[in-house]
Input
Amino acid sequence: MAKVAKDMIIADIVAMDEGTIPVLMNAGMHCVGCPSAQGESLEEAAMVHGINVDELVASLNAYLESK
Output
C-alpha cells in the first residue's frame, strides 16, 4: 500500500491516487492543479496555506488505507 509523506511532491501524491484531490481540497489546499503543485512538497504547500501538515498526512493516509 502506498503511503504519503510530508516531503512528497503534491503532483506525485495526486498521480498515486486521484482520490487524494478531494482530501487536499477539503483541507483547504485548493491549488492542487496550479503549477506550484508540480514541484512543491506537501509540507511547503501546507506551510503557505497555514495547514497542519501532520494532520493532512494522516488524512491522506487514512483515505488510502480505506481503499
The helical segments are 10-16, 20-26, 42-49, 53-66. The radius of gyration is 10 Å.
